[in-house]
UniProtKB/TrEMBL annotation:
Residues 12-173 form the N-acetyltransferase domain. It comes from Anaeromicropila herbilytica. Coiled coil: none annotated. The keyword Transferase applies. This is N-acetyltransferase. The keyword Membrane does not apply.
Length: 177
């Protein structure tokens, strides 16, 4: 088996990343439809660097997003910038192929990450950052229960335009209310 079911939802599960998936990640990380939304379109991803990143981050709460019905890799997600003293962290995710977006996978991924963060990592505040033009992502985050907590105005330049960084968070006490 290529993947391991660490966090299991209704349609997807989160597995430790697999270095054999590096080529797929490189494909996605060189696709502007993915990288524009995660702020890394200026980078050029290559196979060796991606393999190294996967190996270096394998135990750092970074997960492959895998479809339950057929074990197909859909994307990547993680819990980052964990501060155990302050009990806060950040989350992020992307779905690689357009055909797998807008199917509720992102909502399910966030629910699994939030549950894990609040109930297993003892976090109290989980934050994310999204760009103001990414209305699909913002809608997903609001659906899960994230609230906007502020903006950094015109902080992201893309395709000749400036966009706001939108910061959203959720407290443990707000989760599943």
């Amino acid at each position: 088996m290529k993947y391991f079911k660490k966090l299991v939802g209704e349609h997807i599960y989160l597995s430790p990343m697999n270095v054999e998936d590096a080529a797929t990640y490189v494909k996605w990380l060189n696709d502007f439809s993915v990288t524009d939304g995660i702020g890394s379109s200026f980078r050029v991803a290559d196979l060796e660097s991606e393999k190294k990143w996967i190996l270096d981050n394998a135990g750092n709460y970074q997960f492959a997003i895998v479809r339950l019905e057929d074990d197909k890799l859909l994307g990547n997600c993680g819990i980052n910038s964990i501060d155990h003293l302050r009990q806060c962290a950040e989350v992020g995710l992307f779905i690689g192929e357009e055909e797998n977006r807008n199917k509720g996978y992102g909502t399910e991924v966030l629910d699994l990450l939030l549950d894990y963060g609040f109930h297993y990592l003892n976090l109290n505040n989980i934050m994310l950052k999204v760009f103001s033009f990414n209305e699909r992502a913002i809608s997903c985050y609001k659906k899960v229960g994230f609230k906007e907590i502020g903006r950094r105005r015109k902080a992201y330049y893309l395709n000749g335009e400036f966009h706001d960084d939108v910061f959203m968070d959720m407290l443990k006490e707000e989760y599943k209310q």
